[in-house]
Amino acid sequence: MAVSLKDPQDGDLGEVADINVTPFIDVILVLLIIFMVAAPLSTVDVAVDLPVSNAQPQPRPETPVFLTVKGDLSLALGNDAVPREALQATLDQRTSNDREQRIFLRADGAVAYRELMEVMNLLRKAGYLKIALVGLEDTGQGAPAAGP
């Protein structure tokens, strides 16, 4: 509440309705400085020319071929263990020599990237160039769902 400094004998003791905006302006200026300093820190400085993907989701085959790299680096084709040396023969048998068929590659989270690349090189050497990496799909409802 503000009081007028007029002569009290005028009989008019009205209130002054002016708001002191100086503290408000000070707070706004401090916030502006904080955002000006913090904004450049939140950006990524690595220049990358990212490609644009317009790929449509592919229909899932009736009997997908899953190749799994387990945590101990052993391989499994479907539910059956397969040695690395016999991978090409087993894949040819499973796919009826159809090397255009997509192979869904799954790996344990503990498998190193180098080991995963070695398995991909084995697939490439066997003639299977269509490889889909299988990961977990975030459904936004707690537990993630598995999906290719």
From TrEMBL:
It is a single-pass type II membrane protein. It comes from the Bacteria. The keyword Transport applies. It is found in: Cell inner membrane; Cell membrane. Its main location: membrane. The keyword Membrane applies. The chain crosses the membrane at residues 27-48. It holds the Pfam family ExbD. Keywords: Cell inner membrane, Cell membrane, Membrane, Protein transport, Transmembrane, Transmembrane helix, Transport. Belongs to the ExbD/TolR family. Involved in the TonB-dependent energy-dependent transport of various receptor-bound substrates. The accessory proteins ExbB and ExbD seem to form a complex with TonB. PANTHER family: BIOPOLYMER TRANSPORT PROTEIN EXBD, EXBD MEMBRANE COMPONENT OF PMF-DRIVEN MACROMOLECULE IMPORT SYSTEM. This is Biopolymer transport protein ExbD.
